[in-house]
Batch of 2 targets.
Target 1
Amino acid sequence: MDIAALIAWLLTAVGGFVMLGMWIAKGGTRQPRTSKFPPGLIFGHFALAAAGLVVWIIYLFADSAALAWVAFILLLPTAVLGFTMLARWIPARQAATVGGGSEAATTAQHVPAEQNFPVAVVGGHGLFAVATVVLVLLAALQA
């Protein structure tokens, strides 16, 4: 269970890195910002997830139940921030899709950086994130 949680967490991180890189490359941090995601939201999500992963890796070596619970507790605000971003991303993505996706229209408007995220990456990241939370909880309960 512990290693399965680590693998799920690492796969989640890969999707997160892809989206973070795209968000930065497409102007998510530039001024004036067109992104619906404040940098604090993005980087807070990243920092909490990374801290939790580090704690989980230390738990794997130390085999301390307290560390398993700390990692799980770090996942909770990480998940809240992730759902916040998803809740902001879905309506904007739908509006962009329904509003017409012609290149002229999208270049005329300032397309938020996060609208460049592939749906498959967002979905995969979310599915692996949910699996990570469940696996970490189950492992913590057994620790």
Target 2
Amino acid sequence: MNVHFEVVKEAEYEVFRKDVKDIFSIAVKEEFGELEDEVITDEEINESLDKPKAQVYYVYVDQKKVGGVVLEIDDDTHHNSVELLYVYPNCHSQGIGYTIWKGIEEKYPETKVWELVTPYFEKRNINFYVNKCGFKIVEFFNKYHPNPKLKKDENGFKEDFFRFQKIMK
């Protein structure tokens, strides 16, 4: 499978935000049922999109659009992060996520450390990052150890996150 990253233009951010919201809501609905509040808000997505070092891409595999990613790339420290990564549900369980991840590693070979966070209940993500991509869980954010970057929320699903890290060789 051949992976290709296409820069998302600012004029396309609305469509990108909708993709993120739609796909992120799937696991939450499966775990908690229908919710009154948004799973992720425009403001939260914009925080990732608007970071000074953000790289925003649509991802294509074999010339088919399969998802998107927001990376924060620090060319000075080479400590980079995955801010948002999504794969369309009809592309799950086909090796596409792993192909995307390998493509990200190839695109940024100077990376020393990759980091990301994912909700505690996202078993699919946890399995993917730990068992497929080689990340380690290095921190658990919860009410006893809050993530200083996140705002308080009444809904527990936004409270408990794992922080993952992959040290590159």
